[in-house]
Amino acid sequence: MFLHAARQLGDEVTDIVQIGDRDHNDIKEDQGLGMKAVLFTAKRGVDSETTSADAICNRHADLPAIIDRLAGGG
C-alpha cells in the first residue's frame, strides 16, 4: 500500500513517516520498506521499552515536531 501511494505521489517510500501504536505491525514492517516510523503511546504504551521506532510520541500535540525532525527540518 505504501509503495503504491509513494509512486502515485511521485515520492520515495523513504519520504513517508508511519505513525502507529504497535511495534510489530506498524513499526517494524514499515521500517523494513525504508520508511521512518513513530510509535504512538498515548493509548497503548506496551511496546515503548523495546521498539525500534525512530521516535516515540506520547501526545498528539508532539507529532508535528517529531515529523519535522524526522524529515530533516530540525
Order of helices and strands: HEHEEH
The CA-CA distance between the termini, in Å, is 28 Å
Main beta-sheet annotation: 3 strands, parallel
Q: Radius of gyration in whole Å, from Cα?
A: 12 Å
Count helical runs: 3
Unreliable spans: none
- Structural category is alpha/beta
User: Beta-strand level of the residues, as a percent range?
Assistant: 15-25%
Fraction of residues in helix: 25-40%
Key features of this structure:
74 residues, alpha/beta, three-stranded parallel sheet, globular
Explain what the structure shows:
The model has no long low-confidence stretch (mean pLDDT 90). Helix content is 35%, strand content 16%. The radius of gyration is 12 Å and the shape is globular. Strands 1-2-3 form a 3-stranded parallel sheet, with helices on both faces. With 74 residues, it is an alpha/beta fold.
Briefly, what is this?
By secondary structure, the protein is an alpha/beta fold.
SSE blueprint and pairings:
Elements: H1 2-9, E1 17-20, H2 23-32, E2 36-40, E3 55-57, H3 63-70
Parallel strand pairs: 1-2, 2-3
